[in-house]
Each structure stands twice: as structure tokens, then as C-alpha cells.
């Protein structure tokens, strides 16, 4: 008798810009057997299938042939495909945002729990070397204020959603993780500049205990920019993600500050790794080994709730 294949039989639903990268990584992963892929554009599906050596398939047939699927279609289609996969007993990785509405997100979380299936959401920043550097940095005391900026020049893709669901949601997830709480109030401004949905947004989040965050995202900027500042009771942390640099001013820091006796600066840098590869590996480990889900449906739902509240505040303003 032949031994069962120990690899995860994986299908990919949607092989557009990001779905293609998923397919390339999956095809190279020794723990994955890429059974096929699907795309609404048959020519696109055939081209990527030839590139990775997998079969183009209809969505229903692909779900039936796989043990797990990656959902990388436009956001408005997330729910229907993820629901169908979970109903068939498949593990599901779904790109961010988890769904288009909170009702859909709640339904997917409940469905995955009832079926005992893995539901992982594609907040890829959680798997970056930069994120690990930030969460592992020395503390500047109790964090009271967070400032995050993510900006990029305009690119005509991902325009089916606003900049909030396209870019800002990454920093929403980061701030929620660092704050360890959900906001109790949200204000925001934004505008559509080059598309039909907001292309820049500035959100202010109020957390319990008087803490606050200001998150800025733009996809119509002059240049790339990615920064984070955390102000705390003993100092601050400043991060430049593009320069791969981090500095923490705090009591007892290594690099003395002449005019601040007792304070010093700790500096760090990091070497980037393949975050998508790490994210896929975590999904495979959850499916095959029962490892904890690093970014589960509940985490995806929390980020979506804040993102939708930011969109609502922009619309109301």
C-alpha cells in the first residue's frame, strides 16, 4: 500500500496580483501539494497555472479536491467562497480584510469554529521581521500615544476598496496589537482623489484610559513612507520601516543622552525576510500540525470593525 501524502492539498481561489504570489510560494513549499487554482478570468488562470505547474479548475471542483484553500479574490467575493469552503470542511486562509461586512465576518468565524477548521486572515505584517522587531523592542514605559503613517504613490489596483481597507488596515491591526485593546471612539477624515473611494485617510482612535492613536494612510502620495511612533510614560519608540531602523528612548537605555540623566537610546535594525512565505508556513502548520492560528478570524474581525468605523466616520464627515 502507498503511504498517504503528508503534504497539505491546497487550492488557490483568485490568482490576480497577490494571488499569483501565493501560487508561486505554495508551489515551492515542500509541505504543500498545489492541487489547482481558480480565477474569474480563464486566461489569467491558465497563465498562472502554467507558471506553477498546477491545473486551472472551477471553484467548486477545486474546493472539492483540496484540504485547504487560499481565498485571494476581491473583497466582495471573500464571504461566498470562504463560506463554501468551510461548508465543505476545508481549512481557509482568506486575504485581508476578512470580509466586506461585520455580519459576514461573524458568520465565517462561527462557521469555522463549528466545523473545527482553521480560519486564518492575511494580515501579512504580523509575519514581517519589522513587526517582530517592534513587539520585541524595549519598553518606553506605558504606551499612551501611537502615530502610524503608511503612504505610497498611486497604483491602479486594489481600487475595489478604499485606502482604509487596502493600506490602513495593516496599521490598524498593528496598533490594536500594541495597544492590547479596542478603541471606544473613532474620528476620521479622507477623500477620493484618483478613484471612486477614499484614497487617503487620517483616523484618530481613542482607547480606554485616555490613550490615543493617529493613523494616516495614503495611496496618492509623492513618495513611499512608513513610520511608527509610540510615546510612553518613560520615553518613545520611533520606527522607520523603509530604513529598517528602530530607536527607543527610555530609562536605562544603552546610549546615554547627555541632557536626560538616567535615560538612553536603544537602537535596532532587522533583515527583511519573505513575509508571505512565513505567513503560508504558519497556515500549513496550523492545518497539518495543529499549531495555534497566528492571525485568526477574531483578529481579522477586530481590524475590520475599526476599518469600517473609520470609513463610516469619513462618510459622515
List the helices and strands and how they pair.
Elements: E1 8-13, H1 17-28, E2 32-38, H2 42-52, H3 59-65, E3 68-71, H4 78-87, E4 91-95, H5 102-115, E5 119-122, H6 129-135, E6 143-151, H7 163-179, E7 185-191, E8 200-206, E9 212-218, E10 225-232, E11 235-240, E12 245-251, E13 255-256, E14 263-269, H8 275-289, H9 297-316
Parallel strand pairs: 1-2, 1-3, 3-4, 4-5, 6-9
Antiparallel strand pairs: 6-10, 7-8, 8-9, 10-11, 11-12, 12-14, 13-14
Helix pairs in contact: 4-5, 5-9, 7-9
Summary, kept brief:
Strand 8 (200-206) and strand 9 form a beta hairpin. The protein is globular, with a radius of gyration of 21 Å. 36% of the residues lie in helices and 27% in strands.
Report on this model:
- The protein has 317 residues and is α/β, with parallel strands linked by helices.
- 36% of the residues lie in helices and 27% in strands.
- A hairpin with a 6-residue loop joins strand 13 and strand 14.
- Helix 7 (163-179) crosses helix 9 (297-316).
- It is globular, with a radius of gyration of 21 Å.
- The N and C termini lie far apart (67 Å).
